[in-house]
Amino acid sequence: MTWNINDARDQKGRIAIVTGSNIGLGYDTALALAGKDCRLVLACRNMDKAKAAQRQILVRYPKAHIECQTLDLSSLKSVRSFATTFLKSHKKLDLLINNAGIMMPPYSLSEDGFESQLAANYLGHFALTGLLLPVLAKTPNSRVVSLSSLAHNWGEIRFDDLNFKSGYSKRGAYGQSKLACLMFAYELNRRLQKAGLQTLSVAAHPGVAATNLAQHFPRFLTAFFPLVGQSASSGALPTLYAALGDDIDGGDYCGPRSMRQMRGAPVKVGSTRASKDQEAAKRLWNLSEELTGVSFLS
Description:
298 residues; alpha/beta; Rossmann fold
């Protein structure tokens, strides 16, 4: 038996933050949550694009409650500003969906001096989760969903050169960032359990999905996506399963079931030995606290 969005309970009265929700997987995740009557915060870098997404969702679901708030995950200043604004106006948070990301761009450093994929995909979400943990922790049945990727198989955590200042590989840096996201999801759940908190930390990946993330791919490669992959709406289903599934436990990882997790209905999936290395996860957590200046569950 497989899960689909029709299996999810009504979400009336619940609130979700979806990062990077103006396009691609994030937009389709937000759209599906709106269809379940979940109150949404579209957390996006570009406010014009966020408002355009808001209008599109309202065409489909005119009664949806949707806010737009600026969030640039590659900027720790922006992450702190977002969290401060949210906490001033909201007393609960049921779902934090750490979706936003960039994939294999040319080398650049964020304003905080981090390799761009590490900053936007991982460190920004690490800081955001820590800053929002107080409201997550007091919200019954809350969940944090971290987006990883099949690319976590490519990577290793380069503790001696996280920012690829020596020998940049856009593929390696992307793999590192997505491995870090998955290690974070597992380690966060262990720490939540140790602290006696009821918030669940889970992870998901979309398989091979046709989204804007492929903008830096060679055109000949993207031509093969429809043959092995799936649409953004299908790619969003593992995230939605992780967020809404009744049988989800803390530490679960969700992805497509078919063609080596490249496409298909959402199920619970396995991950690499490296992603489950608890000593490396602790080291990464400590380093992330140092780099971001956000400490929690330590």
